[in-house]
Write a structure and sequence with these properties.
Endonuclease, Chain A; two-stranded parallel ribbon; 3 domains; alpha/beta; about 475 residues; 17 strands; about 45% helix
């Protein structure tokens, strides 16, 4: 046989195809496996390279082992809390039987119990939320823990940086985590200012292959967490960056984002802190003692009565925690489901849960954006609208130049879900996310007011109009839908 580049490439392509048949289908959903195999058979070399870079949705074995170890610590913490006078009545309080499946599911997935005695405040104003954060940091006496996907030294992030510096100067311990790629282009000034103040900052999931720090490049820590003294906490969708995200196209077109932040005080803040402690340990190997730390053992000042529960999720867990919760909630809904989310590319089980709810008479409302900031996700999302509309799901699209970036769910009149998670494969399988669940009619009533404002600023989408969109748009939608399976 005469060996030349054509022969070598042909043989290599053949071997890649054979190996792919053994490797790719293992522990992978059929749709994902089919998409990867199709790519590799059509373009073997390129497909193999992409699979090596993007094919594994799991964190490293070391990180998964650390997550399991921290889950055991969190579970022990919950069990010990039941023995602490003053705190015990707030852990796993008696709740209506309707909530038990969700409470038990979250506890089994994450080790975090439901805790009552909390107050919950929803903050829908972009600047107002930051002002509230700054006030709480300025009141900190012992420590501030801050973890964000994006944190920039701009007119939004700078006041928070200033507050952290002031806190450090008066002896408050401050710890900061930022995502490595989420802060690409922002981290220089931030690291310089906080470093000069003696505040440790660590970049999460770094992509540094030459420093033995390599993770799949699109495995990101998307969480937004602030904990002040173990008694006040924040989470939600908003990053600490200007509402244009400094994108030139957004600035040119006047596009900006709207967000939703939740401020909580009470025992459930311990669960937000446990999530931070877990991520801190993963990046620094410093184990903050969550079993004996005063902020986690001594009863917090109880001023509210809202039962809350925190669900962390991500590739460090064995299951798709947030997906499981959302599906369970949608199947249990009796009257109404309202979802506000920028990126809705539903996994099959989620799609079935939503369409089944609509078919059995539940009022299902989906609030998204009319314009998108991610081409593939935007078009993949559009490919599902026809099926949702045919099932009876109401779709509203927030009018430009706003991009709705909030991430919330209300179920009937008594369950509210707020956090960092989108409703796409990326958030279900690749990103580390954080979700707060509130079992309380009052919180849902507050969320309904925000949803009503979203609806007032949105246009309804009708099936006939959507079916009449241009042929090329339909083509882009369908092609983008295929790429969403390449995980």
């Amino acid at each position: 046989m005469e060996w030349n580049w054509v022969t070598i490439l042909g043989l290599l392509s053949y071997l890649i195809g054979i190996l792919a048949l053994f490797i790719i289908p293992a522990n992978r959903k059929p749709g994902e496996a089919t998409a990867w195999l199709l790519l590799i058979f059509l373009a073997p070399i390129l497909g193999a390279i992409l699979f090596l870079l993007l094919g594994s949705p799991k964190l490293s074995r070391w990180r998964r082992e650390q997550q399991r170890a921290m889950n055991r610590r969190i579970k022990n913490l919950a069990e010990e809390a039941e023995q602490i006078p003053g705190l015990a009545p707030l852990v796993d309080p008696p709740l209506p039987a309707r909530y038990e499946p969700f409470v038990d599911l979250i506890a089994r997935l994450s080790g975090m119990p439901v805790m009552t005695g909390n107050t919950v405040e929803l903050l829908a104003d972009y600047v107002g939320a930051v002002d509230r954060i700054v006030q709480d940091i300025d009141a900190a006496q012992r420590y501030v823990h801050l973890e964000y996907f994006m944190f920039a030294d701009d007119k939004i992030g700078a006041p928070v940086i200033d507050a952290l510096v002031r806190a450090r100067q008066r002896g408050v311990v401050c710890r900061v985590l930022i995502d490595h790629l989420g802060n690409f282009g922002y981290h220089g000034p931030l690291l310089k200012r906080l470093g000069a103040a003696g505040i440790p900052v660590h970049q999460m999931l770094p992509a540094r292959p030459f420093d033995n720090q390599w993770n799949r490049i699109d495995l990101r820590n998307h969480r937004k967490i602030i904990v002040v003294d173990g008694s006040v906490g924040y989470t939600g969708s908003q990053n600490l960056v200007e509402d244009t995200y400094h994108k030139r196209a957004n600035i040119r077109k006047g596009i900006h984002y709207i967000e939703l932040v939740v401020r909580v005080s009470g025992p459930v803040v311990r669960e937000l802190n446990a999530a931070f402690v877990t991520d801190w340990h993963s990046e620094t190997e410093e184990l903050l003692d969550i079993n004996t730390a005063p902020e986690l053992r001594v009863p917090a000042r109880v001023s509210g009565s809202v039962p809350c529960q925190v669900l962390p999720s991500g590739p460090g867990f064995e299951h798709n925690n947030n997906l499981m919760l959302f599906v369970a909630l949608f199947y249990a809904a009796r009257r109404r489901i309202t979802i506000a989310n920028p990126y809705v590319v539903p996994e099959q089980s989620l799609l079935l849960a939503l369409t089944a709810a609509a078919q059995r008479g539940v009022e299902v409302t989906l609030i998204v954006s009319e314009i998108g900031d991610q081409f593939l996700v935007y078009h993949a999302q559009g490919s599902y609208y026809e099926e949702l509309l045919k099932a009876g799901v109401r779709i509203y699209r927030y009018r430009p130049p706003v991009i709705l970036h909030s991430k919330s769910i209300s179920i009937d009149d008594d369950i509210a879900v707020i956090g960092s998670s989108n409703m796409d494969i990326r958030s279900f399988q690749l990103n580390l996310e954080i979700t707060l669940v509130c079992y309380d009619p009052g919180v849902v009533a507050d969320l309904r007011e925000i949803e009503a404002e979203y609806l007032r600023c949105s246009r309804p989408l009708y099936l006939e109009a959507w079916q009449a969109r241009p042929l090329f748009t339909k083509l882009f939608d369908n092609l983008a839908r295929l790429t969403s399976a390449l995980q």
